[in-house]
Specification:
Two copies of one chain form a homodimer.
Chain A (H helix, E strand, L loop, with lengths): L2 H9 L11 H14 L5 E5 L7 E6 L7 E7 L19 E3 L2 E3 L3 H22 L5 E7 L7 H9 L8 E4 L11 E6 L1 E10 L5 E2 H4 L6 H12 L20 H8 L5 H9 L12 H7 L2 E8 L10 E2 L2 E10 L5 H15 L5 E10 L2 E2 L5 H14 L4 E5 L4 H10 L3 E4 L14 E3 H17 L1
Parallel strand pairs in A: 3-6, 3-7, 7-17, 8-16
Antiparallel strand pairs in A: 1-2, 2-6, 4-5, 5-18, 8-15, 8-17, 9-13, 9-14, 10-12, 11-13
Helix pairs in contact in A: 1-3, 3-13, 4-12, 6-10, 11-13
Chain lengths: ~450, ~450
């Protein structure tokens, strides 16, 4: 079976970790990963009640050599809205050197780069040139509670010199990048309770509080039209990027108009005036609303004032914002913004601080060299606006930096319909990881 | 079969007119009504392509006597949210003299009052004491397009002295009421288009417009927290109630605190300061949001910036607001409120002006007398905050007033889970209508 055959097989498993209906698929994906890692001396599924399994494997046959902790995730985002997919999300198809499926890039394709590099080195040499510990989780898209409790509790067994994570992007096609900064996140729900039951908007419109309107009022009280978050104290801890980093970003090849048109596809970019696109997506915090539940959203006209509404929101955090403090600020601001006649409560789903890596770390230099060798272009140092909470966890619990060696492309459509992975990047990624491991 | 047996049978038909999946049920309800009316000399289903049938029947055997146009509707609101029903919405159950089912009060129970009164008079006397034309529609809860085009096109055949409509409420248990005013409505959807596809909120949060947030910004720009609609010109045509009417409302038996607690069930009533509950629900226009579609509202955490969002909204109108002018005002205000990076469009689903009836009309006086006789208390004149577009249509197309003789109770839960109808009102309603027809 070629690595591509394996990728197709992996992508066929609908391992949507946030959906209890897919629990069996998530387990199947874990077992698939464990089978791939069976070439290593030790591999096991780590179980916890009510949680998706962790896959752990190790090869500690290179005494005196560095130890890398390889991390990836086998779970995926929900595929909705299904109607926008050109081919079914769990039936991978290849078009123009890209493979289309949910999880193609995020993160099955990139996780399989790690698994394949390790397997090929062992199959060729009988052993690995360094020590590796492999930890692949199944809850990255749904809060990651299992790994969050497992890692601190097993810090000695997981001891390593650095983590190697393939879950980020190249800056542009053919331009390799190491990601040295990630935003953190606070994801939660604003639950608004109004009337005791759904009411007729004719009979009660004018006197009954409307939780949907209240949700809109609360949301617009938290962020203004310039994208500035108006929660008191929210920006107090925000650390600006260093002048060197800002200068490096300014010299990246970037066509804002092309980005607006081809990646965002909107009539204008939004966000805080006076900040560049890189600053707004990498170095400034955000508030986004992901969905508003309540009332009637089907076809036709139902004239209901709903009893409740729920707004699903997330805040992206930057260094040095503390998620726990931010949650308190959010709660205070929601309380202040709640209109008369309703109650509103913020329910935290998960939180993680921003993470950053020192570009001067010696393993980062070797990773950059491996990327440069594989792609034939100088590696650039970028950040990502997304959140990989595990990076902060590895830093805190294990005291190690994470090497974020990403092979995604900016238009891969993570979390969107028609997510894809560029197959040349898949293959060059495998070569890069092998080169990197050999260089240690 | 008793009238109650028939009501149970009628309520078992899930005739949800706004849901295409229930089209066959809607037709079944129409046929059921036609069968009930088969005691009249003429009865037929009136079909139109893509529309639910009208049921028409007539008895013109009382020359020299007045002609009444009896109106009701056999369709119902969708039953969601299903999980809040104590018994299935289309399996009627009787508890404490109330029958619980979707449509129990609105409007199958009240429509059946008309059908039963006519049937009992014919079965007793062999003929009716006045002329009646019966027009029962199946799209009252979904825009009423069929009847809206049918009535003006068949004005001569539908000629009558007044319409008799049982689709409103008594003011309180045991206190009969004639409704002499209804609010109009403009129901539509605000369609917001942002990015070309759903985007990852980590990668693009900070630069991508978010249609859900844009919808919240537009909604809060249209109405302030005091319930005042900030659309320019919106109140220009609003006619205040007459001093007599305001005085009569002030003398109605009404405990605002009890109403807040038992009917609205919220911690506070809302709406424009300086206006009474009656003024706010009967004589002032409103804006309500009924649902916001877009993004992800399931369990768990999906970090999506959706490509589109749709807010379902309605405006209740009062005399003398013109729906066509209001729609233009809404469109202008939405254009002005639309934030950068998105487009927003108001799609009208349906509209109808407010309607009012002259309490001095002689047929109104006879209707009040029939009510007073059946319930043993003086009939009061009230308005309703809801919209019965047919009243305006009968006024415009046929030049006749509508007698709004309602037997619902304020806590009947129209459009809500656990809708009910108070069975004594069902039986007294039948007696009232018979008394009224005999009095003409």
């Amino acid at each position: 079976m070629t690595p591509l055959d394996k990728l197709v097989q992996f992508l066929r498993i609908p391992s949507v970790s946030s959906d209890p209906a897919h629990a069996a698929d998530v387990r199947r994906a874990a077992e698939w990963v464990a089978a791939e890692l069976a070439v290593l001396p030790r591999v096991e599924l780590i179980e916890a009640p009510g949680r998706h399994p962790l896959v752990y494997a190790e090869s500690l046959t290179a005494p005196g050599q560095p130890t890398l902790l390889l991390y990836g995730h086998y779970d995926v985002q929900p595929p909705d809205p299904l109607e926008l997919w050109h081919s079914p999300p769990f039936e991978p198809v290849i078009r123009d050197n890209n493979i289309y499926a949910r999880g193609a890039c995020d993160d099955k394709g990139q996780t399989l780069i790690l698994l394949t590099a390790v397997r090929q080195l062992i199959e060729r040499d009988g052993h690995l040139p360094c020590n590796v510990k492999v930890l692949i989780e199944g809850e990255e898209e749904s809060g990651g509670e299992h790994i969050t409790s497992y890692v601190p509790a097993h810090a000695p067994e997981l001891a390593a010199d650095a983590a190697l994570i393939c879950d980020t992007e190249m800056f542009a096609p053919g331009l390799p990048a190491l990601c040295v900064g990630l935003r953190g996140i606070v994801y939660g729900e604003i639950h608004v309770q109004g009337p005791a039951q759904d009411l007729h908007s004719g009979v009660y419109g004018g006197v009954a509080p409307n939780p949907l309107m209240a949700a809109a009022e609360i949301l617009t009280a938290l962020k203004n039209r310039d994208g500035y978050i108006t929660i008191p104290g929210f920006y107090d801890a925000v650390r600006a990027p260093s002048p060197e980093e800002s200068r490096a970003w300014a010299s990246l090849p970037f066509d804002e108009e092309h980005y607006r048109r081809t990646e965002v596809g909107a009539s204008a970019l939004t966000g805080e005036p006076g900040y560049s696109v890189f600053a707004r997506t990498w170095a400034r915090p955000t508030l986004e609303v992901h969905g508003i539940r309540g009332g009637f959203t089907g076809e036709g006209a139902k004239t209901v004032i709903p009893s409740t509404a729920v707004a699903k929101v997330s805040f992206r955090l930057v260094p040095d914002q503390d998620p726990a403090i931010v949650v308190e600020q959010i709660r205070t601001a929601i309380a202040a913004a709640t209109p008369r006649g309703v109650t509103a409560e913020f329910r935290l789903l998960h939180g993680a601080p921003a993470a950053s890596v020192d570009p001067a770390h010696p393993l980062i230099a070797k990773a950059a060299a491996a990327l440069t060798q594989a792609f034939g272009r100088e590696t650039v140092y970028i950040r990502s606006g997304g959140s990989i909470p595990i990076v902060g966890l590895f830093r805190e619990a294990l005291g190690i930096p994470s090497i974020l060696m990403g092979f995604g492309l900016p238009d891969d459509g993570l979390h969107s319909p028609n997510e894809k992975f560029h197959l040349p990047n898949f293959h060059q990624g495998i070569e890069t990881v092998k080169t990197f491991l050999n260089s240690l």
